[in-house]
Amino acid sequence: MSEVKSEKIVEKKSLIAQLEEEGDVAADYLEGLLDIADLDGDIDIDVENDRAALAIAGGKLSHLVGEEERF
Q1: What are the sequence ranges of the domains in the chain?
Q2: Which of 28, 43, 52, 67 could form a disulfide with 22 if both were Cys (CB 3.0 to 4.6 A apart)?
């Protein structure tokens, strides 16, 4: 493997590790929000398209969003 390819692989792994860490910080924040609102939910962390992506599943999460407005 060439040195350039090796460096790119290390950079990609470093980026993924940084994004996973950012996802953990965001998940901690969201977990605190769910606790304050007394809501249940599972937080999933993933890295997609060079971004940390989080999803909250379960519970009555509509309380976070509110009701749909009707005109």
Answers
A1: 3-65
A2: 52
